[in-house]
């Protein structure tokens, strides 16, 4: 991954397995969000390719990319809601764009998806009228509108208090189970990493490559890289209890 001659990361090779909650982690400025943007096709790799179920994303045509993206749900750090649209209108947008469903059917699905994320009765609210945590949940409702196979999250807990962050983690797991989806998350929040992830990649800003790959709980104990163990053990005292 590079911006012109500025190398961000290189020699990244890893698998995200179906059903994983896969975390992209590492220190600030290592390229976590940039990697996510490559995975969803916003950026093109300078070298290499990205495959979905063995199918090249970068070498496929526009129609093929459209079909792949149709199977994804994406949320953003800020929630990514359109401020001039109600929560119902935001959630309905993918259904209007990518299906031939009628207005009544869309309204029923929207009400159901908002209820799934705990926002029943908030259909007519605008993003500015609800809290940051509710905006995150509304963004998730829109992301699951089309029952995606893969859910992508960029720092979903950013700006949330610990309780709201925990509730969002629980909601992500609920959505994963109800949809049977694979989840890919960019985060540096240890509580979230250990609560929901079963697989991960660790990007290093200094060496500009991945230095660990696997279950973060196991990496915390067994990684050969001290930098990884230190990152995953921060907040722990010498005897292993929470500091």
List its salient traits.
243 residues, alpha/beta, Rossmann fold, six-stranded mixed beta sheet, two-stranded antiparallel ribbon, 9 helices, 10 strands, AAA+_ATPase
Short description:
With 243 residues, the chain is of the alpha/beta class. Helices cover 39% and strands 16% of the residues. This is ATP-binding cassette domain-containing protein.
> Which CATH class is shown?
Alpha Beta
Strand order of the largest sheet: 6-7-8-3-9-10
What structural class do you assign from the helix and strand content?
alpha/beta
Order of helices and strands: EEEHEEHEHHHEHEHEEHH
Given as residue ranges, the uncertain stretches (5+ residues, pLDDT < 50) are 237-243
Number of helices: 9
In the CATH hierarchy, what is the architecture at level 2? 3-Layer(aba) Sandwich
Largest beta-sheet characterization: 6 strands, mixed
Average pLDDT reading: 92
Tell me the span between the first and last alpha carbons.
37 Å
């Amino acid at each position: 991954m590079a911006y012109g001659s500025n190398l961000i990361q290189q020699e990244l090779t890893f698998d995200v397995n179906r059903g994983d909650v896969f975390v992209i982690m590492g220190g600030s400025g290592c390229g976590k969000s940039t990697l996510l943007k490559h995975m969803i096709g916003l950026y093109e790799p300078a070298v290499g390719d990205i495959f979905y179920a063995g199918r090249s994303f970068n070498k496929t045509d526009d129609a093929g990319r459209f079909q792949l993206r149709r199977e994804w749900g994406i949320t953003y750090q800020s929630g990514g809601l359109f401020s001039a649209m109600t929560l119902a209108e935001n959630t309905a947008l993918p259904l209007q764009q990518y299906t031939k469903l009628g207005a009544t059917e869309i309204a029923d699905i929207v009400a159901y998806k908002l209820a799934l994320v705990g926002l029943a009765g908030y259909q007519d609210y605008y993003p500015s009228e609800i809290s940051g945590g509710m905006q995150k949940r509304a963004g998730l409702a829109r992301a699951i509108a089309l029952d995606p196979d893969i859910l992508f999250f960029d720092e979903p807990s950013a700006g949330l208090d610990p309780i709201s962050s925990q509730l969002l983690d629980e909601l992500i797991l609920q959505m994963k189970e109800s949809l049977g989806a694979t989840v890919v998350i960019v985060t540096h929040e240890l509580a979230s990493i250990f609560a929901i992830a079963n697989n991960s990649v660790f990007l290093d800003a200094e060496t500009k490559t991945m230095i660990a790959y696997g279950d973060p709980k196991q990496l915390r104990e067994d990684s050969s890289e001290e930098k990884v163990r230190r990152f995953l053990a921060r907040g722990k005292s010498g005897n292993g209890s929470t500091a």
